[in-house]
Amino acid sequence: MSSTTLSDLAAAVRDACSGAAIDAYEDAGIQGLCEQGRFEAAVGAIERVDLAAIVAAAGAAAGTAVPAGASAAAGEGGPGVGGPAVGESHTPAPGTPYAAAPATAPQAPLLRRATREDLPAIVALLADDVLGAQRERPGLPLAPGYAQAFDAIERDPNCELLVACRDGRVVGTMQLDYTPGLSRQGAWRATIEAVRVASAERSKGTGRAMIEWAIERAHARGCRVVQLSTDRSRVDAHRFYERLGFVASHLGMKLEMAPRERS
Q1: CB atoms within 10 A of CB 247
Q2: Which CATH number applies to 97-243: 1.10.1740.10, 3.40.630.30, 3.40.50.300, 3.40.109.10?
Q3: What is the pTM of this model?
Q4: Per-residue pLDDT tens for 48-69?
């Protein structure tokens, strides 16, 4: 490689390692780990950076040959985004894979629409959280409300319940809602909700890959704005979303309502 290529390669390695370390450190903070725990998570993330894929990408950009193994690693889970083109409202059938999430992290997870069979895993992810543990019921049989909500989401063309999978296992989930509005000259907006990542997947860049995928998905649906809300107590999550380009432009409010008894 030329000196310029080597310089670019060094910069790519530096950026990949620093990005992985920062994401892991902040993810660990979200989970309430102490300073030592955050540091160990960051070090572990650096050790998992796929250097072979970075070398392969640098070699491809320079037009030079790269080892066969490295070339194969670079070709896995490309950054393409599946789903309909701009203006189309249909989505693949439940269980149909989209393309892999953007490859900002090695071995990015596969995103697909959730199926009814995924419900136990999704509810378990929702409950695997300090706040979620207080309001979810992951035990089997699941509360009827979960299946009813799933059916309502499936019927709505402007809702997508997604799961992130690795090696056939559900390791993350999120919901995307698409809303038309008159403001901004009739712009559509996408809302990212209920983002959860399995404990074993945290500090691996999985959450980052999911959010970046969601942004691209919203763009493909023709949305002009992507929005989300996060609990005030999740300070590290605030920094995580800000690093992805989100701005704390509004003050969110909600009103909890007790369910009405049906007559």
Answers
A1: 7
A2: 3.40.630.30
A3: 0.63
A4: 777 777 777 666 665 544 333 3
